[in-house]
What we know:
It is a single chain. The protein has 179 residues and is of the alpha/beta class. It has a domain at 3-86 and 139-178: P-loop containing nucleotide triphosphate hydrolases (Rossmann fold, 3-Layer(aba) Sandwich), CATH 3.40.50.300. 54% of the residues lie in helices and 15% in strands. It has helices spanning 14-25, 32-36, 45-55, 88-103, 110-114, 117-122, 127-151, 162-178, and strands spanning 3-7, 28-31, 37-38, 41-42, 61-64, 80-84, 155-159. The strands form two sheets. It has a five-stranded parallel sheet with strand order 2-5-1-6-7, with helices on both faces. The protein starts with a strand and ends with a helix. The relative contact order is 0.17.
Amino acid sequence: MRKIALFGPTATGKTTLARRLSAESGYLHTDLDDLLFTPDGPLSLEEFRRQAAEVTSGDEWIVEGNFSKLADVVWHRAEVLVWLDFPLPLIVYRIVRRSLRQLTGREDSAQARRLTWSKAFFDRRSLLRTAIRKYRNNRPRYALQVSETAALGVDVIRLRRPREVERWTSGLREANREK
């Protein structure tokens, strides 16, 4: 497993999992958000696709992000596509918990420095409302795209709970120790 694509809704632990896999494997980890959002603003779709294709042109990589519009240059090039498909109540809990940590200054990040109570919870396009809307709207489309990706020979792993993520990563560690 040398080419891994991870995706899932906000607050499912994509970055944490990608960093852990990268540390254990030594493969380059790329967060698609880091490609898309530059100090000068977001890239054009054409440039975003070009840069994502460049990242996935190598033999060993881990890419994470929710950009199914890049399926042909990320998902279809992967050996393994990992879908973190957690239940909505868990996602809501994690968003609230993370937002509260950021708003109270217990977690520092670029996002935390821009976050306000309204942006987190109350605005029409708040993190919380957006996550709920995207979960409901994107999930059926993701299921279809994932099945199309699987039909191309990509191994799809759908993890529905944090406990399943832990079991899966433990299994990977065991397999690597046996080699």
